[in-house]
Amino acid sequence: MNNIILYNPRCTKSRQTLKLTEDNNLALEVIEYLKTPPTVEQLDDICNKLGVEPTEIIRTKEKLFTELRLSLSDKKSRIEWLKILSEKPKLIERPIVIYKGKAVIGRPPEKVLEII
Q: Active-site residue numbers?
């Protein structure tokens, strides 16, 4: 996955980050990840580009996280966490921008400027 933004139109930070990328003339493919969830392989690639473990891109304050009775201390493998994120994309931190092989979570939106 290159030159993309994992985007949720209902998220203020996603909208602000997309506008910032547009203002800086970045040509990004907008992927509404709730409609088109990333695969396990894509999420693995994203985590590698971010330099983080899957647990570091989980929205732990999301209601779904507690409804699923998940905990970051659960003894799950990397692949198990990636499967959870792929199956429950609402748990993925957003927005995530990938540009020219680098990735960043747009919180705050200005963080995207670090990779351009």
A: 11
